[in-house]
Amino acid sequence: MSYGKFLVKRILQGFVVIWGVVTVTFGLRAVSPGDPVNLIVDPAASPELREQIREDLGLNDPIYVQYVEYLQGLVVGDLGYSYQSSREVSTMVIERVPATLELAIAATVVAVVIAIPLGVISATRRNQPSDYGATLFSLVGISTPNFWLGIMLILVLAVQFGLFPTGQRPVGFADAMHSLITTGYAHDLVTWLRHITLPAIALGTYFTALITRLTRSGMIDELGKPYVTATEAKGLPGVLIRYKHVLRNTMIPIITVLGLQLGTLIGGAVITETVFSWPGLGLRLINAIYALDWPLIQGIIIFIGVGFVVINIFVDSLYAYLNPRVVDE
Questions:
Q1: Whole-angstrom Cα distance, residue 105 to residue 155?
Q2: CATH number of the CATH domain containing 114
Q3: Fewest C-beta atoms under 10 Å: which of 39, 96, 122, 211?
């Protein structure tokens, strides 16, 4: 199979997944209890007014007609209209994307900076205290729920010691960098870093533990191969062997997991954003669920699903480019 056919196959599979997400969310809305008209007008409104609203919204149409009309709207980028907020859903989703991406990327950076060196140390010092410590850290990190860790970080580092704020995000990364470039002052950037540190640690801990274990196992596997013995026989320094040759060959599966987990972090940031009142898609989704704002709920879920599919396709295509044997499997 050629690389082009492989890419087309992945894209078609992605469309099927997106269609499945759209269908499931629409179906949940159709079977959910309650009358959508109650979210627009008072339940005590006259039957004539309620019937007129149902007619205007197309709620009297058969369910398959509503489904087709919803799909037609999605094709042109129309995610619907939130009558509770009196705003377009697409606008409400897009304005929260930067905060969620900042948190997901920051959690990824935390994971990579900690996990890869820790995995290398664990693999090169097997059965030593540092290896046991890294293994214990990985086990604890994978077993710890991020919402509990977030609450503990707030209680200890924010409330008890006052080292970090408890939540919110008074300034975004783009605005902080713009202020740094235009004024030369780093106050906004420091503020952003202080606010994102705890959420990024809480969200990235599981990811850190996963990458640590993956790096350790990959390094151990590579260290046992003949080319390592050959490079050692040539007298190359151990640091050069570990980081230029062994770690480089270990990075392909790590890069794959990084890309896939980035999509998972975007969707999994819901609880972390709620704990830290982080103004991203997750917090908006929780508020929409409380308010039974179905158009907004659907829009956010579909957007997260599309983002996850796009990231997966990108990672698959990159992995196939780096390792052409994947195309033939």
A1: 24
A2: 1.10.3720.10
A3: 39
